[in-house]
Amino acid sequence: MAREKRASFRDEEYWGRPVPGFGDPEGSVYILGLAPAAHGANRTGRIFTGDRSGDWLFASLHRTGFANQPTSVRADDGLELTGAFIAAAVRCAPPANKPLPSERDNCLPYAVEELALMASVKVIVALGGIAWDAAFRITGPVRPKPKFGHGAETRLADGRALLGCFHPSQQNTFTGRLTEPMIDSVFARARELA
Fold first, then answer.
1. How far, CA to CA in Å, does 190 sit from each of 41, 93, 129, 131, 164?
2. How many domains does the chain have?
3. Residue range 103-127, pLDDT digits in tens
4. 54 inside domain
5. Domain with 135 in it
């Protein structure tokens, strides 16, 4: 993705490397997404930064008190998170936004290590079904495994709460499958649980 630039970004230096997590390392809410967007985080080097999914996510985090501003267009734009940390299940932009099982497996240890270092995390918010599944792979299996859905809530094997949220992709926001009140309600609930 970083080699073949989109015309609108042809003058920008693409980052094109694995994208680390970002936010408050003392936060009690860990937001787990799918993967860096090809021309968003893959370009900016910060998760959910510079793409429309991030526009929705950061606006909601701002409305619910986790972010100091409602937008993020580049890594040095002044965005700060308080009480929340954002990461991705897959750390590199996968072709067609569909990671292979091997890509998911290769990236999983990074999320495991992040959570091990973040003892204050009490709630994981999974943005989409792949992130929901990754949360169980990170923390240990629960039987029967709870089904993903928007607003789904369960406990993980390590005792942390897991909340499901439809991913703020254009597929969900343009169609009305995910609305601002819907995403805000998940982050308001995460704040309550934390």
1. 24, 27, 18, 16, 10
2. 1
3. 888 888 888 999 999 999 999 999 9
4. yes
5. 24-193
| Whether pTM exceeds 0.70 | yes
The one-letter amino acid code at 19 reads V
For residues 186 and 188, give the distance between their C-alpha atoms in angstroms, rounded to a whole number: 5
Asked, for residue 32, whether it belongs to a domain, the answer is: yes
- CATH number for the domain that contains residue 38: 3.40.470.10
The pLDDT of residue 6: 66
- Can you give the C-alpha Rg of the chain in angstroms? 16
- The string of DSSP codes covering 175-191 is TTSS-HHHHHHHHHHHH
> Does residue 31 sit within a domain?
yes
- Which residues of the chain have a pLDDT value below 70? 1-6, 8-10, 14, 96-97
